[in-house]
Design goal:
The structure is a single chain. The protein is built from 13 helices and 16 strands. By secondary structure, the chain is an alpha+beta fold. The two termini are about 55 Å apart. Monomer. Binds directly to the core enzyme of the DNA-dependent RNA polymerase and to nascent RNA.
Length: about 400
């Protein structure tokens, strides 16, 4: 038994990275507990395991005293001297009390301890591996699903994809390969539990880092992301290098880079806009593809009033307010959109201090968008507060 145990400990140390000493300490503790339980003993004992000799012995530890009150824990000085005349008061005497059939109990206990320690070690290794990958992207394989969750294999463990983290325009089938964003890694009594998402804005950010080398190496930075998963998203990008076109880098040659991300997200539309520290420019860029005539900033309320051409109002607002809503979330500013005619009536446009330039020749009315947008009238106005759409992550 000891030879087999030694071989098992060496194998575990090599393959699982579990220290032999750690397992031996656990076995000794378990054997002490087994001895007390099986032989109805409560004294202080020590287990001596000699793997080389193939022996396991139990020793009762008793303190040398003048007067014995508990024979399970104490021994008289007279009795101690019969064992060794050098013993003195408060010394500890060890007496072997190994039961005859202790080997069978020891073997069974050792097996249980080793199995438990291996399981705990494997769970610890998996947890350590995945806790470092929180807020990262991984490729998984769909295994199975129930009404609440989809279970995605990440190799060593199955991750959970909740229904509210699934894209509404996707249907998942077993063996499908999908990219997921690790939102949370929890340590539970049953081992690590990993939650993933397909709707988190972080997934979009990580996909751009994979597809765009300039983002990966830090030349281009993603400043903010606003996403309505499965439908439309906006990201703002910036580069400190004036020779680098941040937006063009993300789009790629003939749109190849952004198209790869669109394909991964099953056709989700993505607007890439240039970030600016100036809220006037940033808000105007964020409302792309709409053209903006002017942006009036209220710093105290972190709010803006945006003036757009009359025929661009529906485009600026977007279907069901989506374009304005995403722009507000992207910039972190409240956005109140007004048509040019209404702004002139209110006396807030034009302004001499306007910082935006507007070229009529650059404006092309989005006819397809307006024809398909039955929810909005060109005379509508909309006010969007970015705080109303912050997602709790």
């Amino acid at each position: 038994m000891s030879s087999e145990l030694l071989d098992a400990l060496l194998l575990l140390e090599k393959e699982k990275g579990i220290s032999r000493n750690v397992i031996m300490e656990a076995i000794e503790a378990a054997l002490i507990s087994a001895y007390r339980r099986n032989f109805n003993q409560a004294q202080n004992v020590r287990i001596d395991i000699n793997l080389g000799a193939g022996t396991m012995r139990v020793f009762a530890r008793k303190e040398v005293v003048d007067q014995v009150f508990d024979p399970r824990l104490e021994i008289s000085l007279e009795d101690a001297h019969r064992i060794n005349p050098n013993y003195q008061i408060e010394d500890v005497v060890e007496l072997e009390v190994t039961p005859k059939d202790f080997g069978r109990i020891a073997a069974q206990t050792a097996k249980q301890v080793v199995t438990q320690r291996v399981r705990e070690a494997e769970r610890g290794i998996i947890y350590s591996e995945f806790i470092d990958r929180e807020e990262d992207i991984m490729t998984g394989i769909v295994q199975r699903q129930d009404p609440k969750f989809i279970y995605v294999s990440l190799g060593k463990i199955e991750a959970i994809l909740p229904s509210n983290e699934q894209m509404p325009n996707e249907r998942y089938k077993p063996h499908d390969r999908i990219k997921v964003f690790l939102t949370k890694v929890e340590k539970t009594t049953k081992g690590p539990q990993i939650f993933v998402s397909r709707t988190h804005p972080g997934l979009l950010k990580r996909l751009f880092e994979i597809e765009v080398p300039e983002i990966y190496d830090g030349t281009v930075e993603i400043k903010s992301v606003a996403r309505e998963a499965g439908d439309r998203s906006k990201i703002s990008v910036h580069s400190d290098n004036p020779e680098v076109d941040a937006v063009g880098s993300c789009v790629g040659p003939k749109g190849s880079r952004v198209q790869a991300i669109v394909n991964e997200l099953k056709g989700e539309k993505i607007d890439i806009v240039k970030w600016s520290a100036d809220p006037v420019v940033f808000v105007a860029n964020a409302l792309s593809p709409s053209k903006v005539l002017d942006v009036i900033v209220n710093e105290a309320d972190k709010a803006t009033t945006v003036i757009v051409p009359d025929y661009q109002l529906s485009l600026a607002i977007g279907k069901r307010g989506q374009n304005a809503r995403l722009a507000a979330k992207l910039t972190g500013w409240k956005i109140d959109i007004k048509s040019e005619s209404d702004a002139r009536e209110a006396g807030i446009y034009p302004r001499e201090e306007s910082l935006l330039t507007f070229d009529e020749e650059d404006v092309e009315e989005d006819v397809d968008f307006k024809l398909n947008n039955e929810d909005l009238d060109v005379n509508d106005e909309i006010s969007i507060d970015s705080n109303e759409f912050d997602e709790e992550r």
